[in-house]
Amino acid sequence: MVEKYSDETLAYTLALDVCDRWKVANGYKTLSADDLSAVKAWVSTSRGLISKSPYLQELAVKGIDGLMARQHQIKSEGGALKLVSA
């Protein structure tokens, strides 16, 4: 059976996956919310990082934008975004 997911769900899933890849590629154990801009630039300039599909790369960038927007919202409320992945 094929599962259907929304573009938003896929975008966040891809964004978290790319964040994990960025941490490994750059020798980081944790990722601060401020690093999201660097991750976004890395995804935008790395051809074939996710796949040969520009659509998936675009979704990952949208997911990172969503994480950045959420961080901005949380930061304005005095908190901090924590990116946790399995």
From TrEMBL:
It comes from Sulfurirhabdus autotrophica. This is Uncharacterized protein.
